[in-house]
Amino acid sequence: MTHKNDVHLSDRASDARGWPKILGRFREPNETRSVVEILITILPLVALWVAMWALVQFGYWWLALVLAIPAGGFLVRLFMIQHDCSHGAFFRRRDVNDWVGRVIGVATLTPHDYWRRSHAIHHATHGNLELRGIGDITTLTVEEYRARGFWGRLGYRVYRNPITLFVVGPAYLFLLQHRLPVGLMREGWQPWLSAMGTNLGIALLAGVLIWLVGVGPFLMVHLPIAVVAASLGVWLFYIQHQFEETFWARPPNWTHQEAALHGSSYYDLPGVLRWMTANIGVHHVHHLCSRIPYYRLPEVLRQHPELTQVGRITLGQSLRSVPLVLWDEGRQQLVPFKAMRRWQAASLPLAVETA
Questions:
Q1: Strands 140-141 and 333-336, how do they pair?
Q2: What value does the mean pLDDT of the chain take?
Q3: Which pLDDT score is estimated for 328?
Q4: Cα 27 from chain centroid?
Q5: Could you write out the three-class secondary structure of 39-73?
Q6: Are 286 and 297 in contact (CB under 8 A)?
Q7: How many CA atoms does the CB half-sphere of 312 hold within 13 Å?
Q8: In this predicted model, what pLDDT tens digit does every residue of 36-55 receive, in sequence order?
Q9: How far apart, in whole angstroms, are the C-alpha atoms of residue 112 and residue 109?
Q10: pTM
Q11: pLDDT value of position 339
Q12: Which of 153, 198, 323, 332 could form a disulfide with 111 if both were Cys (CB 3.0 to 4.6 A apart)?
């Protein structure tokens, strides 16, 4: 007997399977446009860095901290270029993508080859409940959370706390964790070469800047930019997959196309934020065809407006996704801890509530 959820999943999957072929014609990059995108990202970032240093020199450190917000935004945009390079989407030749990504990785504190490999695992396994662990925000099912003891539940609650997820965690991830090929440490010499090569590049760049401006000014300028960018980047990654009616399943109900189309959001941001984040909010399309350069994603939506109605989340709606922390396999939804408390109190099937 077929469960109604299985039928629902089957119908949605058949809807998703045709999209990669349809979207394939948008894959070709415009290499002149790609170079321009790099320049209009790096030059404002450098200008903001210099402006922050000048403000620190004249004692206006508080105003320099304000400028760290747009500077962090441009660093996120630079990371999105590296992200496209990791998919081989920004230039036609793979070696050009890789070397541009490696150089950018020094600025973004992200080893390109190591991250490209772990990110590919994320694309290949996202939404598969049997293959969680690399490149994902850790997400437990309701039953997995129930099965944990006191310390296990406490640890998960601390991890899913917004301060951990969007402040402490991102700083740790980019400043410390990326210094080693965590998750791929036994996968041969290539992840180590990527991490150590990037560390060397970071040390050289930091050394030059410290020689030019001094240790104190360097830390007062660069550290806030890096922390802001890390938090913004993790938030974007979070909201791209953590929303109420996202998609998680176990094989055979899981398919790559279904997870791409319905397990990734369309984060419909205002124009300025959409530009600053390099259209990464059109994430369902990106997962369906990761070789599309980010500057062609709006073209996809213009020619296929039906995709604007799939997984759409506005800026205001995205804030309401933060309390959604557990995947309810029965209801096929993310639910908050609040719903868990009601289940425990009433000993009834889990009821979905808003936070």
A1: unpaired
A2: 90
A3: 93
A4: 21
A5: HHHHHHHHHHHHHHHHHHHCCCHHHHHHHHHHHHH
A6: yes
A7: 10
A8: 999 999 999 999 999 999 99
A9: 9
A10: 0.90
A11: 77
A12: 198
